[in-house]
Structures are given as C-alpha cells and as structure tokens.
Design a protein that fits this description.
This protein has eight helices and 20 strands. It is α+β, with helices and mostly antiparallel strands.
C-alpha cells in the first residue's frame, strides 16, 4: 500500500490571535502559530503555559473565545471534534482493555462507517507502520507501555486524518523507552507524511522531534522557529533558560556596531550583535551555552593564553566535577567570582579535572548571544 492508504493529504493548521480564559485566568493569550503541512510542530513549555489548552482548541474539545483556527482553507471554530479532520493521541492512550489490538485499531473505522471490506487492509497497514504486525489478536491489556502507545497511534492514523494531535504521549514511559519511542514517532510521522502537532514539557524531546518549535510561557508564544534557531538565538531570557542549560553573565556594553564590545568576566570581549539590540543599550546579559566552553590545564604561575578575535581565555578553579561517560560536566569559578557551567568531552576518567584544579577556559565568542536587560 502507498502512504495514501493511511493519511489524507496533509493540511496546514493556522492559529491567528487565539485566546481562551477559564474564569479570570487567561490560559491562552493571543497565540498566532502556523503548523506547516506535513511537518511536526511542537508546543513546548512549563506546566500551565497553555500548550495543552491550545492543542485541545485545535482538536475541538475547547472553543476559543477570540481568534481563528484554520485547518487547510476551512475555519473550524465551533466545529465539533467528530467533524474535524483531526485525531488526538492522549497521555493515557484510552485503549479498550476488553478489545484485541485489531478491534482497538478498527474501532474508529467502524464508528465512521468505513466500508467493511476495507477495514482489515487498513488495520493491517496501520499496524505495519507502527511496528505491531502479528499482534492483531492480542489483548491490549497484554501489551507493554510502548506497545500500547503504538496501538493508540495506529488507531489515530487508520482513519486517515489530515492532522495528528499528540498530547505528551511519552509521559507514562520510563526514560530509556521515551528515547526509543520518540525516534519511532518521528519515523512514523515522516513515513505517513501527516501534519503533526505535539505537546511536551521536555525540551530535549521537542528539539529532537521538531521541524518547527513553538516555546510558550504564561499563555503566550515566547519564540518559534527551527530548533537550532531557538537554541542558538533565544529571543528572551526565559527561552534561553528553558531550552537547555545556560550561563547568564552580566555585561556592560561599551559600543555596538556590526559587533558589540562588552565588559564581562573581567575582560573586554567583542561578541556578535543580535539584530534587535538597541543602539543605546548599556546593560546586557551574555548567554553562554556550556558546550561552547572548553576546559584545559593551566600551568601554575603562567599567564592566561592570549585572546584572539574568535577565542577568549580565562583561568579559573574547578568547584564541581562530574563524569558523565561521553563527556564531563564542570562548574568553574573565574577571576571575577562568576561560576560557569562547562560541558566538555571526557575521553577517559583519568583526564577528568578535579575539584580545586586550576584550569583554563576557552570561549568561542562567536557562539555567544547577547540579550538586552
């Protein structure tokens, strides 16, 4: 069978100024987002940021009070879930324990009165895609958590939706299985080619899955874009702190032209100037990702290595050292009292720097990012 045996032609989902209140609380505040056809868009943010409410409005389970929701060229405000071309996979999978895998997957087809002759073939294809061929007759209660999740995916896909909605589908799985299943989700989504909107609070999950990433906070969109854009050029301190581990270093801006000259970490640095940095800014925060700092030994009494246009060097003392196998994690106190987190390759345990060691930190200044205060 071809991909069209499972999914309809993918459609974009467009939210324009969508708002939702619960009593006096604003859950979603003017959200404008486009999930492009055939891509996987994640809504990521802390608990209570409005991401699940947004997903439920797309699915028709909640009506927005303001704004417009479109699927393809159709406005779906007020359209019930059963009449939308969406299917939702919930956190608890919502399988019928008294039914077999086959009957769970076929349930939606029977409910929509699909031709009886088509049901076996469509169920078989859906189970093949999710990797459950041969388990048709097994009871859903006999399945592992990962297998139950796959059944939930198959049941959603078999009805040929235009949009798949996933509400934290990995939250009930252990850490190792979560990593395995997110790879499977990406494989399934790409094989079927369906527009998918995925809600998660897990930043790593969002980064690894997304074509398009939407970071939400307090009901609003803080930033959206490609995962590497969000990570490398955060639009706010919230985004920089929520997505990954970050060092925030106070900085004074001396001048700003094509680049910005700043005073930070006890020295003068020339760092990239973000396009939205005001001309008159004087106080700023330098964002440094731990992997953009590299640690090496420093000889006692030696001057720190000279700084060139792209690399700045500092001496400091290791105050925390952790061996992680493929890498090492350090916290290093530098001359001005700042403590910097460092994520550095660790080829073997003997090369690990210990607490109290004096080391040299090398910073790739072109990988830093400046935020105005």
């Amino acid at each position: 069978m071809t991909r069209s045996a499972i999914a309809s032609d993918p459609q974009p989902v467009v939210l324009n100024g969508v708002r939702k209140r619960f009593g006096k609380d604003v859950a979603v505040d003017g959200v404008t987002v486009t999930a492009r056809a055939g891509e996987l868009t994640t809504l990521v943010g802390p608990s209570g940021c409005g991401k699940t409410t947004t997903l439920r409005m797309i699915g028709g389970f909640i009506d927005p009070e303001e704004g417009e929701i479109r699927i393809g060229d159709r406005v779906v405000n007020g359209v019930p879930p059963s009449r939308r071309s969406t299917r939702t996979v919930f956190q608890n999978y919502a399988l019928f324990p008294h039914m077999s895998v086959f009957e769970n997957v076929a349930f939606g087809l029977r409910a929509t009165r699909a031709p009886r002759s088509e049901i076996p073939g469509r169920v078989e294809e859906a189970l093949r895609i999710v990797g459950l061929s041969g388990l048709e007759r097994r009871s859903s209660g006999q399945l592992s958590g990962g297998q139950q999740q796959r059944v939930a995916f198959a049941r959603a896909l078999v009805t040929r939706p235009e949009v798949l909605l996933l509400d934290e589908p990995l939250s009930n799985l252990d850490a190792k299985l979560r990593i395995q299943m997110r790879t499977e989700i990406r494989r399934i989504q790409q094989e079927v080619g369906i527009t998918t909107i995925y809600v998660t609070h897990d930043q790593e999950e969002a980064m690894s899955l997304s074509d398009h990433m939407v970071v939400m906070n307090q009901g609003r969109v803080e930033q959206q874009g490609l995962p590497h854009e969000v990570y490398e050029t955060p639009a706010s301190r919230f985004v920089a702190s929520f997505i990954g581990v970050t060092n925030f270093v106070p900085a004074t801006v001396a001048s700003a032209d094509e680049a910005a000259e700043i005073e930070a970490l006890g020295t003068t640095l020339r760092v990239p100037r973000p396009p939205d940095l005001p001309d008159d800014v004087r106080s700023a925060t330098l964002v440094i990702r731990p992997e953009h700092l590299h640690v090496g030994p420093a000889k006692e009494g030696a001057d720190p290595p000279a700084r060139d246009a792209d690399v700045a060097s500092f001496q400091g003392e290791v105050v925390l050292s952790s061996y992680l196998g493929a890498a090492a994690s350090y916290r290093v106190r530098v001359a001005d009292g700042e403590e910097l987190f460092v994520h550095d390759p660790a080829p073997h345990g003997a090369a690990l720097h210990r607490v109290g060691d004096v080391v040299t930190l090398r910073l790739d200044v072109n990988r830093t990012y400046l935020l105005s205060d």
